[in-house]
Amino acid sequence: xxxxxxxxxxxxxxxxxxxxxxxxxxxxxxxxxxxxxxxxxxxxxxxxxxxxxxxxxxxxxxxxxxxxxxxxxxxxxxxxxxxxxxxx
Length: 88
Prior knowledge:
This protein is mainly alpha-helical. The chain has a single domain (7-84), classed as Methane Monooxygenase Hydroxylase, Chain G, domain 1. It contains 3 helices and no strands. It has helices at 5-41, 44-63, 69-84. It is elongated and about 60 Å long.
């Protein structure tokens, strides 16, 4: 356990940040699952709607360094390829 007042404050701040980052990562995964579900069902319009929000969330997470920028680009690319493969 921390003894210094500043150390205790740092622990509180770190915990808040961890929770905030976990919430953002969770919403990203949720949108990815929604997109994949729409792709599997062949609903291109729904997948594109989800993709727009997903791309925005991923870019924001990369900007805040929650995930790496290259990782964000790679995940967006892989999902967009799956969406493009849907026969509409």
